[in-house]
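Thread: quick sanity check before group meeting

JM: Hey all, I'm pulling together slides for Thursday and realized we never actually wrote out the predicted structure for the chain we discussed last week. Dropping the sequence here so it's in one place. If anyone has concerns about the input, flag it before I start.
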Amino acid sequence: MILNEKIKLNGSWFYKTDADSKLDYESVRRLFLSGKIKDEMRVPSNWQLAGLNNFSGAVWFIKKFNVSEKFFAKRIKILKLKGKDYIADIWLNKSFVRHHEGYFQTFNCDIGKFILKQNLLVVKITSPFEEPGKVWPLKKKLIKGIFNHHDCRPGAWDPKHGQDQNTGGIWNDVLIESADGVWLESVRLDSKINYAKNYADVNIKADYLSALSKSVKEEIVAEVLSPDGKIFEHRFNETIKPGMQTFKISFEINNPFLWWSWDIGKPDLYRIKISSKLFDDYKTTFGIREVKLDDEQIFYLNGKRLFLRGTNIIPTQFLSDLTKKKIEKQVTLIREAKLNVVRVHAHVNRDEFYDECDKQGILVWQDFALQWTYDDSEEFAKNAVTQIKEMVRQHYNHPSISFWCCHNEPGKQIETLDKKLFNAAASEDKTRVIRIASNYEEHAYDGWYWGDKEHYAAAPMGPLVTEFGAQGIPEISSLKKILSLEDIRKPNWEKWKYHNFQYEQTFQIAGVQKGKNTHELIRNSQNYQAELLQTAIDSYRRKRFNGINGIFQFMMIDCWQSITWSVVDYYFKKKKAYFALQKTMQPVYVSVRVRQKKYFAGAKLNIDCWLINDLHESFSNCKLAFDLNGKIVNEMEMGTVTEDSIRFIDWESIHLILPKNLKAGKHSVEIFLKSDKKILTANNFEIEIERDTR
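JM (edit): ok, ran it. Output follows.
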């Protein structure tokens, strides 16, 4: 039943910049009414994308709107801002309505006392520049995570340019909504599975605003559509009280369809409609699933142990520009790379991103929007506690979200600020894994910030490795969109640095060769990135549940026109490392250690193999088939590859003699794991035959 009326206020708004926040509401109102504010900006938009280049400070947004007699007559009127960055101060018809801080939250304002049939809405959005040295970067006060301090944003962490291209603005929808009796502000759903009796308890907590003058008994109906198309109805008699209140209902679902990550099941989703004569129908989706991290940091989904094959993602630098189409492409890239989990890195994203992860069966590790260190004051801690609670409440219904993580690389604040954040998140959600932080001891950057890529043989930083990787330069067609031809042909390293390229790490630690030209540099860079990822992932997966329980490559895709650790550039062009990721992250995988790369013809192939099966499915009648230059030259009986297992096959057990007539040069070896005639997985490498001149 549709009882409410909704009006979108998106479109053209007048605006006035106020870099030093010197203006007040009355002066802005007078300027507007006298016709002196003429600039217009489309909402939603981040103001950088709307033409305010490198602007920090305040922008006053002004919108005139009318409401119908029917809308005005209703007793509840709500103004909803679904996303603004960063501080909002709101006036309606000369009256101050609300102050709110944060960039990711949808927040609501009761405007019943202030609204008229003809209205003037003024929203002051402040996204300030934090003073370098004194505040930024070590004592930050803005809870914006990677959006105002990170090595993948415009200017990276440079003191002069690290806050360029401010993300301020009204980046999501603005609307007003009216209701006559009751308005549902939020509905949170969770479930508890009884495995022995094969049912699930579904619990619903709804916060509502009631304009009723007294309490009334009212029937509430929960209509559930199961993944197989069956409809179930549950009816409840609840007392609806005046004011801001909460009701709780619960019901059982027998033989429930469970939500699984795509690799070990189906991400089945239920649809629910909650209705009453007093309020608008509320519709959403939910999944029935349980997650756990045991004392050894092993992850379980619905009681099944799962090795986490993951990546990090920063989908965009500007949330207004992240469309559903882009989100679908990004999540599909994650799934096609054979990954089952994504870490939303040091920020909170659009709701549509989590919707797509729900749909495609990608688990989500959700960071709070804290990146490196912040102000130590009690005032800041109180603000952060409020905002982390808002994050948990806002995204509570997404079955894909399995982890809340309070802070990325907090240093010593893990002992102070982050303990408060952990307790705050735990007070809001008892159903998910809560990590106090993702700190330096979980971030392995061997071969990039220190050491070399061969160090990964020791499988460092476990049991959950939440970052590792190396940069890779995008292909030339993308690079031409990032830099001028002159700066590409004869690299202007300062401009490359602005776009996040790390010179010292590339050439002095990784040892990437510059080559004769930029084309060779790109090839060498992408080769190194791919080799590092393959080396690291092979090493980690060989330690499956033996010190390593999950790995998160850094990172999937560029968030702006940049040169970073991504395996897919800003223009959706895949780097060579994407295919290395795709190969090494297969749920069923033959990991190969090539003990010897150069041979004489007629020698024995010298390799070790690990048969890795992350699936909860066994495969019988298995064989390892060895293909040399496109021709099967040997097969080995493997029997049954059991579910959730790893098996080591050493070099002595692999009896493959290279043909005596094999010509000198490079040759391709491909290894297939087959079950009956079905190929489960494949891996490949090169060997080189040398002439025997003895």
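AS: nice. The chain is about 20% helix and 35% strand. The two ends are 89 Å apart (CA to CA).
JM: adding both to the slides.
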